[in-house]
Amino acid sequence: MSQSLAFKKLLNGLKSEASEVRGNPVLGWTCTYLPLEILDAAGLSSYRILPETSSERADAYLDPNFCPFIKASLGKVLEGEYSFLSGIVMLNTCDGMRRLYDAWRFYCHPPFSFLLDLPRIVTSSSIAFFREGLVDLIGKIERHFGVTVTKDGLASAIEEANRTRALIRRLFSSQGRGDPPLRHSDILDILAEGWTNQRKVFNKALDHFLAKLEVDSSVVSRGPKLMVTGSLLDGSLLIRLIEELGGEVVASDLCIGERFLDGVILGSDPVLSLSKAYLEKAPCARMYDTERRILHLKHELDKTKAGGVIYFALKFCDPYLYEAPAAEEALRRIGVPTLFIEGEYTGRISGGTRTRVQAFLEILGRDAG
Amino acid sequence: MRDKETRVKLLRWLIHSPTTYRVLRPIVDLQNIRENTAYRIWVRFLLDILRKAYAHKRPVIWMNSFLPIEIVYGVGAVPFLPEVMASLVGYMGWGEYPIAQADARISTDLCSFYRCAFGLALEGFLPRPNLIISSSHLCDGANKLFHYFSQICGCPHLMLDPPYSESPSTHQYMTDQLKDLVEKTCGLLRLPLDQDRISLVLNLSNQTRQYLVKINELRRAVPSPFPGSEGLSYLAGMNFYSIGSGWGLRFFRSLHDDIEKKVANKKGYLFEEKHRLLWLHHVRPYYKNEIFQILAERKAAVSFEESNYLYWPPLDPAQPWKSMVDKILSNIWAGPLERRMKAIEEMVENYSIDGVIHFSHWGCRQSCGGAAVIGDWLKERGVPYIVLPGDCMDPNNYSPGQTRTRLEAFIEMLE
Question: What is the mean pLDDT of the segment spanning A230-237?
Fold first, then answer.
């Protein structure tokens, strides 16, 4: 049994023991720049919109040249897959996300909807501005759901979320341990469980899982080491493919991967602490500062000794597609081979992608040898 | 191959020489002798701005189209709009070469205005910028591409990041950003921050705006006095590029006088007008195509186009930053879709519209993403609507047969 399956089994066991999780209103969300601590503090459940497969249902509602993740999400909403949600919270992440928000409201009339303004720049005034948006979100949640978000409640939620991050950091540093060895794809699958389960239960499961795993001191490492960066992946398929073909993913600069593990430094104003931490986290291409992103990539490469980068952009994903040439150029200048993949969100890997990844791994293996 | 390289080198040299534009002016004046005065002013304006941009006697600032151009006129620099230049290149039928150059580096699914501008920049056809400024309020591509331009050209890049929605602090947040951007611009380019010049520019902008108000009022007339195809070309171009300059004032005054005469004489731009259409999206295909000819054959006038909708309030020269922020934040294509829908409702009413065409430019997520919602909302109100997919710059994405079939079916529906 793979490590991710073992974790799932463990989590399911703990879930059946926990009674607290049932009956809360569930809010759907799409972007990791949303501080989930706020929903936790409000006593709401959160559910990440990450459809597993594509849907053609949205073709009549969104243009053909639209992000396949956005279309899959809208398709699933129209098919009624998210009818259990009591509302949605989205961010003005990109043109696609803004239009998904419009279409969702226009065609599906969610009982609660909120679009959080996310600045692209990180300055003291943008941190203050983002904080105001968070305060507005808290107020709207309180009024709509008849709940109260207290300062103490928020501080506890931040502490619990920081605990999740610390556990996930331990999980990443346990890559290669265990029998079978914990792979990067397993870790991403484990993280995905965190998007839809109660934080406390998830933390408990992680704790138990790590306690068993960390006993094993041997670390299995195999194949050329590489890093994957880019837009949203449809699960861990690409990472799994790399592993199957003999590569070892040692870093995933992805919003389903390692983008936010540093934790929130709790100050006297918890909302301000959240605003600062979320804006200052490792940036995605949607943020303005391409240089900051490239510096982050270089830092990760240095830390993990990855010898190559796979840069993945979803088809029609403007932030990553526009950024790609600058990133590739910067990596080329420091001698890091890069493979650019423009991909779909279909729940499967195309033959073409497989061949390109295989060839890339051969090049990396040869260079390393 | 050698010949082609030589031709490209020669063309690049000609484009970069300010003399080219001096020599061209009397020639194109003669060529345009039968065109209306406003059109002639547009051409002269372009030659003038290109001459200045390539002469480099004053700093050149590249910017994206939806930033208020008053900023650049206000600091006394020469504005250069790569997207407008890309549309001109497309209009001249020269778009394929720069687009092909760009396609070797970036995805073909990105906006072809940007791909064309990128290709032109890579090939060294554009004037060297001293500074690049951009704003993120309309689409995701602007800041990323303009930032990359700054790396290619080796100059600084400053950006504005307007929020999506209104909140009590939005104006102050934006005003601080804009003030900072202008101060940095002046510092980087060693230009004085001259309040008198800024006031003059804002006054010119307001006077020009008054003519735009009158033009839009006159265009309510039946039959339609001014063709939408031109509204989407040089009128939209001047709207982006000239407001706040003397050229802009002359252009809009002249266009106003011309349209006023046509309205007084009850003269429409079509021989016979049976249907009145509204064109959605700021742009149209600029290469040779049959769209407007097909509509004209069927007596369907494009009476108004979304790109010339006047969305901003008059500017206050005593409060320049706040005013320009108001202009940015009132943009109907930014922010919630409802803002755009409200403006469309107004246009449908004001221009006695019988049907609406949404031109969905390949690669433009921000506009095309709302096309279905807008369509269903208009249909609920009994307004016939069609989405016309295409590409404004890349003729490879234009399908003449399909376009004709869709347009003819739409006109039949109106009948």
Answer: 91
Query: Would you tell me which CATH number, out of the four given (3.90.930.60, 3.30.390.80, 3.40.50.970, 3.40.50.11890), belongs to the domain B2-190?
Result: 3.40.50.11890
Rounded CA separation B389/B406 (Å): 10
The CA radius of gyration of chain B, in Å to the nearest whole number, is: 21
Instruction: Tell me which residues of chain A, numbers 84 to 113, contact chain B at a CB-CB cutoff of 8 Å.
Output: 92, 94-96, 98-99, 102-103, 106-107
CA neighbor of B300 nearest in space, from B217, B391, B240, B224 = B224
C-beta of residue B226 within 8 angstroms of C-beta of residue B39: no
Q: Are A227 and A252 in contact, with CB atoms under 8 Å apart? A: yes
Kindly identify which residue of chain A lies nearest to residue B368, measuring between CA atoms.
A63
Coil, strand or helix at B226: coil
Specify the pLDDT at position A20: 52
| Interface contact flag, B140 A98, Cβ < 8 Å | no
Q: Which residues of B23-50 are buried (b: 16+ CB within 10 A; e: fewer)?
A: ebeeebeeeeeeebebbbbbbbbbbbbb
Structural domain boundaries in chain A:
23-150
Domain boundaries, chain B: 2-190
| Cβ pair A290:B144 closer than 8 A | yes
Q: Closest approach of chain B CAs to the CA of A94, in angstroms? A: 6
Distance set, CA B304 to CA B132, B223, B229, B260, B282 (Å)? 32, 12, 9, 16, 11
Sign of CA dihedral B289, B291, B294, B300: negative
Question: What fold does the segment set A23-150 form as a domain?
Answer: Rossmann fold (3.40.50)
Spatial strand order of the sheet with B275-280 comes to: B300-305, B275-280, B355-361, B385-390
- pLDDT tens by residue, B40-51: 999 999 999 999
pTM of the model: 0.95
Q: How close B363 comes to chain A (CA, Å)?
A: 6
Residue of A nearest to B107 (CA): A321
Can you read off the two tokens belonging to residue B399?
Answer: 């399908």
Higher pLDDT, A143 or A18: A143
How far apart CA B34 and CA B32 sit, in angstroms, is 5
Say if the Cβ atoms of A63 and B107 lie within 8 Å. Answer: no
Tokens of B49: 């701005």
ipTM attached to this prediction: 0.94
